[in-house]
């Protein structure tokens, strides 16, 4: 049983002094969801009439039906949600971060808090006694494609009052996920986070999260990017959806006119970096993926770690590519290896273009 009132301390690499308590590299806000991960045959998706390769919102009844039909499959649990995955990977790299999301006092909620704390992330929440903790069923097929069925449940009740303003002010960056624009109160919490961050010279980073999110909230995303965002994260599909462009290069060029620093992943090719209008493609690390779950979240974690440690944008993208290359060789969105202290080894020889 987790101690809901306990505050965990930041984790730091050996040899570094402890910074003042409650001082963070990144302050994350997102949907707190327990990932339920299963490997399945593609025919399961066809039988269930599930669209492959995207995130679909489902109600509790539909989620229950899917889980019942998966009862014979081996499943793994992880504390998740897009922004939460990013915070965990930042901590793995050696950064300090805290995360705000909403769970309840049910079994999944208790698991979520303990799992986040075990991963080295301060998880801030005022748990509700009513309702259910959100879940995301992650179905991975042999081609490493992941399909997500998400029941947001209590996570949609996250609101402005849940944001710890003092911790936000003491952070270098905030990181907000686009999935939060699917709910009214979560949207308000995100807007408050961005507004307070800008007022206190805290950098604002924002991920577009999913092409469906972009299509639902395109005009709002464009406005937010212009008004508040210092760093954009997206993949090529999201960039194309936002820009209406036909090529990745055109998409990143469009977004670069809205925001001075843009990171757009391009699969095995690596990631585009647009800094003050200058666009470069930072190469990735060749691997044979077994599960792409959390790849974009891991990339964002690597980039944010780099930016908060004073790396250049391109060097940060290179580290982001490495973290993402490690995560696609794992089952689920959690690394089984520690990356803290490996930056010099991995980035030796890399030069900005």
Structural description of this entry:
- The protein is of the alpha/beta class.
- Helix content is 37%, strand content 21%.
- It has one domain: 3-Layer(aba) Sandwich (UDP-N-acetylmuramoyl-L-alanine:D-glutamate ligase).
- Helix 6 (184-199) links the parallel strand 9 and strand 10 (203-207).
- The longest helix is centred in the middle third of the chain and has 17 residues, at 211-227.
- It is globular.
- Mean pLDDT is 91; it is low at 6-22.
- One of its GO terms (molecular function) is kinase activity.
Topology:
Elements: E1 24-29, E2 33-39, H1 42-48, E3 55-57, H2 60-69, E4 75-80, H3 82-93, E5 97-100, H4 107-118, E6 122-124, E7 134-140, E8 146-151, H5 165-169, E9 171-177, H6 184-199, E10 203-207, H7 211-227, E11 231-235, H8 236-243, H9 248-256, E12 261-265, E13 271-275, E14 278-282, H10 295-308, H11 313-327, H12 343-347
Parallel strand pairs: 1-5, 1-9, 2-7, 3-8, 5-6, 9-10, 10-11, 11-12
Antiparallel strand pairs: 2-4, 7-8, 12-13, 13-14
Tell me the number of structural domains. 1
- Going by CATH, the homologous superfamily would be Ribokinase
Major β-sheet, in short?
Answer: 9 strands, mixed
Distance between the termini: 50 Å
Strand and helix order: EEHEHEHEHEEEHEHEHEHHEEEHHH
Q: Tell me the radius of gyration.
A: 19 Å
- Number of DSSP-assigned strands: 14
Output the strand order for the largest sheet: 6-5-1-9-10-11-12-13-14
CATH C-level class: Alpha Beta
Beta fraction: 15-25%
Cα shape: globular
Please identify, by name, the CATH architecture: 3-Layer(aba) Sandwich
Mean pLDDT: 91
Total DSSP helices? 12
Low-confidence region ranges: 6-22
Helix content: 25-40%
Structural class: alpha/beta
By CATH, the topology is UDP-N-acetylmuramoyl-L-alanine:D-glutamate ligase
